[in-house]
């Protein structure tokens, strides 16, 4: 194995890692605050990409407006779903929301497929990279697409902002209090259910954002989230359910690990994350960054 | 008592006369020829075959009935989804044959699904016309008396594209292939074709997961290995992702060309033809090959709303060929139709200089090496291919001397 190739793969892994990090960050926020296992996250990621594509087709909007609008649209949709459907399941067993979100996933995928075939006559659609980010940069050891560097950078910024808001600001304090002890928080005159809806919207919006970012790299198609979501769940489990730092660090780490794995022994690339998950669960059942059950 | 005997006598006589009448026309089980299109109605290959294949088979059935008065109202077509899974394909094949009484299985994208359905049909003595599945095992070690391989196969793709690209100077390759029956087989065939023409592989081919979205590792590997051609044996949506990322990583500018194992018109449409421009591929047909093809395609487009892919045109041709064999055999009995198909020579809008080899049931036909035009050169929507070479029927497929088929 030559070291240059290995170095290249480490770097390349960061890109996939960025997607894992963004998606698992949303999942972690939603689970950490609301105790919802959102199986629909992959479908919402796909909706982000599809919305970007559809905005372009219908209104001629390019990548930059879509980067702002699509996450907002997906986030708003998420809030509607939370208010109308998910909120009815609070207090029931988690398996109920798992089933609901799984059902919604299947529904969303098929709906998007129907829309794509009937409106655009394609089942997978192209999405072009914005001009300023097309082309490659010679980094010395590798020639790398500009756009992918942009994805890594933007993801790091977003992760830092989310962490800062939740850990260091008053808004974050309210959110944490609402989930820690809703009764007491309500007594302070804070409308807890509104905050819950808002947090769900933000978490889902992050999935939408990941989708828009993915559109220029992968083909936009109804099932693009299905495969990714499995790995993302593994990332969340390894990082520790609900841990923000855990999901971001593990997201990037898993991306790198899979890429290096692919270079050393390709067939193992997609399995590696699950081997790691099994190992972590044996040694630290609450995940790398998760707190043990009693400590919460 | 007498009355009962009389009734029985009349009934028997009636039965005889019916049988006699049928014998004069054709012997059809349950009085119907039922064509079962076993295909991918929902997954990655549904656009290139799927509902369009079912429509094509129906068009063939309608045209056949219109031309053969004796079969009026007697040909039916059903479409069933096998989800590209080998186990689903074998279950569905058994169900179609046993419960829905189909007389032939058609289309069968995804090699693993084609192989398992062919195995089931063999046990039940039902002919199978594989159009969209590519593995050469169907006419080699896994061949059987009831399976026919139409349109294309991996040998033909590899022989056509591998030879054309290598001879045009693309003599060093790095190949990736999806890790299932089709990809493994196509990689083997492509490697053999490249070596035969004096080319070489810069490193061993890499197997990628199937399905897969991210191919950047392999593209980066290609960057560092600097082959003249980056060969991809992926198909459908996977191919679209590979080519999208091939362009993103700017490999063409770095002097690394693109060699495509299997290309469908829908892949080009999904990504825009400029992304594929210059790439060489081998196809059994394309819609604007000539006037005859254009005429048929116009009919298909009117009925289905989209231009046909070569897979869908192939299903029409295969269905028609099967039905004509039924007419010649005057029966839809599996053994009788197989006999009528073997050694048959014909030419239609799709299959030129076609010949059904009795030895391995490979249906040979003229095939074409094509190059994807840049969008600026396209004269109309869907005008994507320039013909580079015609490979004659007798040369396009595995030579008989090399076939491993025994039945």
Brief characterization of the structure:
The complex is a heterodimer of chains A (296) and B (407). Chain A is an all-alpha fold and 296 residues long.
Write the layout of secondary structure elements.
The complex is a heterodimer of chains A (296) and B (407).
Chain A: H1 3-34, H2 41-59, H3 63-84, H4 94-120, E1 136-138, E2 143-145, H5 146-168, H6 170-180, H7 182-187, H8 192-214, H9 224-239, H10 244-264, H11 272-283
Antiparallel strand pairs in A: 1-2
Helix pairs in contact in A: 1-5, 1-8, 1-9, 1-10, 2-3, 2-4, 2-8, 2-9, 3-8, 5-6, 6-8, 9-10, 9-11
Chain B: H1 2-24, E1 33-39, H2 50-67, E2 75-81, H3 86-98, E3 104-107, H4 111-123, E4 128-130, E5 147-149, H5 154-167, E6 172-178, H6 181-196, E7 200-201, E8 206-208, H7 216-225, E9 229-232, H8 236-248, E10 257-260, H9 265-271, H10 273-276, E11 280-283, H11 291-304, H12 310-329, H13 334-341, E12 345-346, E13 354-356, E14 363-364, E15 367-372, E16 385-391, H14 393-396
Parallel strand pairs in B: 1-2, 1-3, 3-4, 4-5, 6-7, 6-8, 6-9, 9-10
Antiparallel strand pairs in B: 11-15, 12-13, 13-14, 15-16
Helix pairs in contact in B: 2-12, 3-4, 5-6, 8-9, 12-13
InterPro entries (chain A): ABC_transp_permease, BCAA_transport_permease
Pfam families (chain A): BPD_transp_2
Family (chain A): Belongs to the binding-protein-dependent transport system permease family. LivHM subfamily.
Task: Outline the structure in words.
The complex is a heterodimer of chains A (296) and B (407). The mean pLDDT of chain A is 89. The longest helix of chain A is centred in the first third of the chain and has 32 residues, at 3-34. Chain A is mainly alpha-helical and 296 residues long. Chain A has one domain (3-283): ABC transporter involved in vitamin B12 uptake, BtuC (Orthogonal Bundle). Chain A has a two-stranded antiparallel sheet. Chain A is 72% helix and 2% strand. In chain A, 49% of the residues are buried. The radius of gyration of chain A is 19 Å and the shape is globular. Chain B has 407 residues and is of the alpha/beta class. Chain B has 2 domains: 29-152 and 290-361, Response regulator (Rossmann fold), CATH 3.40.50.2300; 155-283, 3-Layer(aba) Sandwich (Rossmann fold), CATH 3.40.50.2300. Chain B has 14 helices and 16 strands. Chain B has helices at residues 2-24, 50-67, 86-98, 111-123, 154-167, 181-196, 216-225, 236-248, 265-271, 273-276, 291-304, 310-329, 334-341, 393-396; strands at residues 33-39, 75-81, 104-107, 128-130, 147-149, 172-178, 200-201, 206-208, 229-232, 257-260, 280-283, 345-346, 354-356, 363-364, 367-372, 385-391. In chain B, the strands form 4 sheets. In chain B, strands 2-1-3-4-5 form a 5-stranded parallel sheet, sandwiched between helices.
């Amino acid at each position: 194995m030559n070291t240059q190739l290995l170095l290249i793969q480490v770097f390349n892994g960061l890109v996939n890692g960025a997607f894992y990090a963004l998606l698992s960050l949303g999942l972690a926020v939603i689970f950490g605050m609301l105790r919802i296992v959102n199986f629909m996250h992959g479908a919402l990621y796909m909706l982000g990409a599809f919305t970007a594509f559809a905005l372009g087709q219908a209104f001629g909007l390019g990548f930059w407006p879509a980067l702002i609008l699509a996450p907002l649209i997906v986030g708003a949709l998420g809030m509607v779903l939370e208010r109308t459907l998910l909120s009815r399941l609070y207090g029931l067993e988690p398996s109920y929301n798992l089933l609901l979100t799984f059902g919604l996933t299947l529904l969303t995928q098929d709906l998007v497929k129907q829309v794509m075939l009937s409106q655009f006559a394609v089942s997978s659609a192209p999405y072009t990279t914005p001009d300023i980010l097309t082309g490659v940069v010679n980094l010395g050891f590798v020639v790398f697409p500009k756009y992918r560097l942009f994805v890594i950078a933007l993801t790091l910024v977003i992760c830092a902002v989310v962490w800062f808001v939740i850990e260091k600001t008053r808004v974050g304090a309210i959110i944490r209090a609402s989930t820690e002890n809703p009764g007491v928080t309500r007594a302070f005159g804070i409308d807890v259910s509104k905050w819950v809806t808002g947090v769900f919207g933000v978490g889902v919006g992050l999935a939408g954002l990941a989708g828009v970012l993915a559109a220029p790299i992968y083909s936009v198609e109804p099932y693009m989230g299905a495969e990714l979501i499995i790995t993302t769940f593994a990332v969340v489990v390894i990082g520790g359910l609900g841990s923000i730092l855990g999901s971001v660090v593990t997201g990037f780490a898993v991306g790198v690990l899979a890429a290096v794995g692919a270079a050393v022994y390709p067939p193992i690339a997609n399995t590696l994350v699950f081997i790691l998950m099994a190992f972590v669960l044996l040694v630290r059942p609450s995940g790398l960054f998760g707190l043990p059950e009693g400590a919460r | 008592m007498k009355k009962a005997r009389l009734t029985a006598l009349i009934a028997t006589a009636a039965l005889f006369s019916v049988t006699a009448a049928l014998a004069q026309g054709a012997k059809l089980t349950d009085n119907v020829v039922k064509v079962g299109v076993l295909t991918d109605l929902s997954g990655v290959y549904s656009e290139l075959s799927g509902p369009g294949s079912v429509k094509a088979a129906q068009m063939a059935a309608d045209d056949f009935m219109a031309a053969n008065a004796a079969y009026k109202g007697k040909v039916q077509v059903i479409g069933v989804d096998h989800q590209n899974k080998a186990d689903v394909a074998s279950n569905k094949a058994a169900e179609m044959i046993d419960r829905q009484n189909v007389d032939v299985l058609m289309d069968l994208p995804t090699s693993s699904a084609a192989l398992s359905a062919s195995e089931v049909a063999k046990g039940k003595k039902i002919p199978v016309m594989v159009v969209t599945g590519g593995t050469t095992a169907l006419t080699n070690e896994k061949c059987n008396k009831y399976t026919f391989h139409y349109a294309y196969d991996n040998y033909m793709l590899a022989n056509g594209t591998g030879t054309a690209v290598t001879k045009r100077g693309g003599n060093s390759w790095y190949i990736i292939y999806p890790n299932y029956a089709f990809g493994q087989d196509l990689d083997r065939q492509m490697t053999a074709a490249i070596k035969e023409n004096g080319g070489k592989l810069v490193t061993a081919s890499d197997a990628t997961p199937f399905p897969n979205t991210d191919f950047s590792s392999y593209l980066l590997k290609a960057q560092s290995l600097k082959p003249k051609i980056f060969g991809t044996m992926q198909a459908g949506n996977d191919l679209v992702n590979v080519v999208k990322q091939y362009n993103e990583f700017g490999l063409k500018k770095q002097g690394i060309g693109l060699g495509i194992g299997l290309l469908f018109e829908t892949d080009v449409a999904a990504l825009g033809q400029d992304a594929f421009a210059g790439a060489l591929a081998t196809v059994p047909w394309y819609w604007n090959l000539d006037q005859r093809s254009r005429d048929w395609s116009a009919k298909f487009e009117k009925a289905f709303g989209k231009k046909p892919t070569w897979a869908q045109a192939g299903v029409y041709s295969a269905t028609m060929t099967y039905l004509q064999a039924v007419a010649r055999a005057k029966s839809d009995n599996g053994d009788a139709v197989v006999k009528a198909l073997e050694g048959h020579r014909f030419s239609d809008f799709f299959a030129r200089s076609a010949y059904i080899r009795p030895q391995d049931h490979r249906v040979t036909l003229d095939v074409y090496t094509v190059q994807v035009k840049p969008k600026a050169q396209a004269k109309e929507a869907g005008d994507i291919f320039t013909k580079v070479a015609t490979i004659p029927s007798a040369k396009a497929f595995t030579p008989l001397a090399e076939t491993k088929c025994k039945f």
